[in-house]
Structures are given as structure tokens and as C-alpha cells.
């Protein structure tokens, strides 16, 4: 700049004018150098890097380019040039150096942030990311680096050592604990969730307290995002999964079976002993022929051994329609192609109530998908409700308005008889 100023004075410019004009020319020259260097770094260097990564055999190299790490890194070059040429402007050298260093620190933080996001994005392409997510840890590292970067920026602008600012943070620890309470709780919860493998991305969890009933789509430092089955998104605090209870359906999905636990209510007034005609009818049913034949022989031998008289069934053993129906359901389920036979298959009676006698079906479907499971369950109960009448059983149902209407109509059709007294 002194050379430019001396040349301007030789060209008969006033010293004051020559001074400010030389500063202007120097600023323009530095600006042009910065623009050229930035252009070269983006159009030449970054293109070479992009070409190399594109041709690379590393399958996830494109994700590095999507993170724009090198584009952000190219902004450091002009700042370095400005810092180098700051000595040419001695009156403003200190201010320029502080500005350039501050800019370099900020760009460095942006580069580090983009690098962390890229690392997390690459990690999520691996299967292990579903069981061991690192997004929470990445966010913790990002917060720590941003905090240290902020301290460096402030110390650079103040012209003081960063250690002085760091020593003052101890006095603000209580305030920091209050400000970053959720982040600290989330960090501890994230470590426990990952260590105990409590939740993964893709798990179906149910947490009524927070209105969550769906699949986990994201696990971060502070929150776990759940996409409910109605396509709404519920945000659950990470530490809530440690402090509160929730249901994780992953065990069901990985077991290869989804439970059916539903009852058919039988009207107790329709329960009776099987007549000879019904026994013969049951022998024609595919799932009952062997059972009825075996039971008929067993009952006959028992009654003969203990001299029970068959003319009165109360005195001995006999087949009942509810027992035969229960045996039919059990054999039907054991031969059903969509029922997992390696898991519990159970048909049992529950305690009778004012709603009748519950016959509970306890079994597991082979397919755990919701829509398939509901279809299998509906098909099973459609069939069982339809065949109950074949065993002279009635399914219990509270009287409806149509039942009362029919009863009133039948009553009105009957002739009214009057008795004359006297």
C-alpha cells in the first residue's frame, strides 16, 4: 500500500487523497484476489474432488457431496487471504485480523456441523443404526463444539485468553444445568436406551400418556419421534422412555406370531347333552369324527365299568354340545394354515357371567402384519359364529330393539281371553 501511495503522490495527488485512494485500491485488489481464489477453489478444486468421489468405489461417497462439506470448507480460503494481507493496512490490521479469525472459526464450526451430519447419514445406511442410533451422541458433540467455538469467538473479539472465559463458566454451571436440563436428561436416557436396547428405529411402541401408538421414525438427543397409525407425529421426550412405562411390540414382531385372545359368549340355556342324532351328525364333521368316535367308546366303557345306566344321563358320562363344540374349535385351530402351531393353541372356558359362558380362543397367527392378522382373526370368528348353531348352541346377545318389537308383535297377535266372574 505504501508503494501505491507513493506512486499516487508522484502523480501529483494530495497526500491525504493519496492515502485514502491507496486504501481503496488495496481493498479492491484484496477483494479481487479473494473472489478469484474462491472461484478457483469451487470451480477447480471442488470439481476435482467431486469427480474423484463420484468415480470412487465407495458406495456412500455421494452422501459426502450431499453434505456440502467441501463447499463450506472453500469459504475459509478468502478469510485466510484477508488475514495474510491485513498487515498492508496497519491502521486497521488488528480489526481485520479479529474479523478474519472470527470468520474462520464460524466457517470451521459450519464445516464440523456438516461433517457430523454426513457421518450420521452414512451411519444410518447400515443395519446397526436401527439398534444403535448415534444421532443423540452426534448432537451432544455438536453442542460441545459449538459452545467451545462460541467461547473462541468471544475471546478473539475481546482479545483475551479462552481460559479466562472457561474459568468463568464454573460460576455459571448452575445456570447451564438449568438451561441444558432436557439435553442432559436426554443424553443420559439415550445412553440407557442404547445400552439396554430398549427401542430402535422402526419399533412399534404404545405410550397412552403421550398419545403415542405407532412406529418410531427418529431417535434424537431430546425426543423420540413416533408416527402414529393415523399418520400423525407424536414427540416423546427421551427421558420419558426411562421414567415412564411403555409397550414395545418388537418382541411380538420378532417372535413370528401375533396373539389372538378373544371369546365367544354362549347362551347357557342352549347347553345340553348331545342326542343320538347329533352324535351321528358330529361323526360326519371332518375335525370331529375321530374325537367323537374315541369319546363315545371311552364313555361307553366308563359307564359299563361303573354300571351307570344310560337311560338316565345324569347317572353317567355323556357328550355335551358345548364340549363337542370346544373340541371342534381346538381341532379347527390346530389344522388352520395361518395359525402358528409352534406357539400356544388353547381353547378354554372362562367363568360364566350375566352375559353367558365365554369360550376363549388363545392362539397366535403366523403373520404379524396388522391387516393380515385382523383378516385371519375375523375369518376364524366368522366361521365359529356361523357353525355354533350346528351344535344347537346359541351365541349370547343382549336383546335389541328389533327383538323387543318382534316380541310385542307376537303378543298382539295372540287372542285375548276374558273370564266372566259372577
From TrEMBL:
Cell location: Membrane
Keywords on record: Membrane, Transmembrane, Transmembrane helix
InterPro entries listed in its UniProt record: LSM_dom_sf (IPR010920), MscS_beta-dom_sf (IPR023408), MscS_channel_2nd (IPR006685), YbdG (IPR030192)
The protein, known as: Mechanosensitive ion channel family protein
All residue ranges annotated as the Mechanosensitive ion channel MscS domain in the record: 182-250
Transmembrane segments: 20-40, 61-85, 100-116, 137-157, 163-180
Species in which this protein is naturally found: Bacillus suaedaesalsae
Domain of life: Bacteria
Primary location recorded for the protein, binned into one broad class: membrane
Keyword Zinc-finger set for record: no
Pfam family membership, one: MS_channel_2nd
Amino acid at each position: 500500500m505504501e508503494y501505491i501511495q507513493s506512486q499516487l503522490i508522484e502523480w501529483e495527488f494530495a497526500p491525504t487523497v493519496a492515502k485514502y485512494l491507496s486504501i481503496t485500491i488495496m481493498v479492491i485488489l484484496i477483494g479481487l484476489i479473494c473472489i478469484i481464489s474462491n472461484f478457483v477453489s469451487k470451480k477447480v478444486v471442488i470439481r476435482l474432488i467431486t469427480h474423484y468421489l463420484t468415480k470412487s468405489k465407495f458406495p456412500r461417497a455421494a452422501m459426502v457431496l450431499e453434505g456440502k462439506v467441501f463447499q463450506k470448507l472453500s469459504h475459509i480460503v478468502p478469510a485466510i487471504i484477508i488475514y495474510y494481507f491485513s498487515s498492508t493496512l496497519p491502521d486497521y490490521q488488528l480489526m481485520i485480523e479479529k474479523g478474519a479469525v472470527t470468520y474462520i472459526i464460524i466457517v470451521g464450526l459450519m464445516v464440523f456441523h456438516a461433517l457430523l451430519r454426513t457421518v450420521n447419514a452414512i451411519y444410518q445406511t447400515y443395519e446397526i443404526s436401527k439398534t444403535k442410533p448415534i444421532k443423540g451422541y452426534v448432537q451432544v458433540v455438536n453442542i460441545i463444539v459449538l459452545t467451545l467455538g462460541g467461547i473462541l469467538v468471544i475471546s478473539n473479539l475481546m482479545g483475551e485468553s479462552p481460559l479466562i472465559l472457561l474459568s468463568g463458566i464454573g460460576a455459571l454451571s448452575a445456570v447451564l444445568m438449568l438451561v441444558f436440563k432436557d439435553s442432559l436428561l436426554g443424553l443420559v436416557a439415550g445412553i440407557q436406551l442404547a445400552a439396554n436396547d430398549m427401542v430402535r428405529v422402526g419399533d412399534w411402541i404404545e405410550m397412552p400418556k403421550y398419545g403415542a401408538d405407532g412406529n418410531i421414525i427418529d431417535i434424537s438427543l431430546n425426543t423420540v419421534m413416533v408416527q402414529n397409525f393415523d399418520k400423525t407425529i407424536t414427540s416423546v421426550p427421551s427421558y420419558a422412555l426411562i421414567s415412564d412405562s411403555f409397550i414395545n411390540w418388537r418382541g411380538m414382531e420378532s417372535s413370528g406370531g401375533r396373539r389372538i385372545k378373544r371369546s365367544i359368549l354362549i347362551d347357557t340355556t342352549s347347553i345340553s347333552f348331545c342326542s343320538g342324532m347329533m352324535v351321528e351328525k358330529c361323526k360326519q364333521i371332518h375335525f370331529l369324527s375321530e374325537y367323537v368316535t374315541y369319546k363315545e367308546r371311552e364313555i361307553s366303557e366308563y359307564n359299563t365299568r361303573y354300571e351307570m345306566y344310560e337311560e338316565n344321563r345324569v347317572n353317567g358320562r355323556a357328550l355335551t354340545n358345548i364340549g363337542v363344540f370346544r373340541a371342534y374349535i381346538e381341532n379347527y385351530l390346530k389344522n388352520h394354515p395361518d395359525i402358528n402351531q409352534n406357539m400356544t393353541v388353547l381353547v378354554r372356558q372362562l367363568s360364566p357371567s350375566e352375559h353367558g359362558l365365554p369360550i376363549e380362543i388363545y392362539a397366535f397367527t403366523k403373520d404379524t402384519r396388522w391387516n393380515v392378522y385382523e383378516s385371519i382373526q375375523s375369518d376364524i370368528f366368522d366361521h365359529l359364529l356361523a357353525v355354533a348353531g350346528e351344535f344347537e348352541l346359541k351365541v349370547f346377545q343382549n336383546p335389541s330393539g328389533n327383538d323387543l318389537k318382534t316380541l310385542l308383535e307376537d303378543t298382539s297377535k295372540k287372542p285375548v281371553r276374558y273370564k266372566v266372574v259372577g
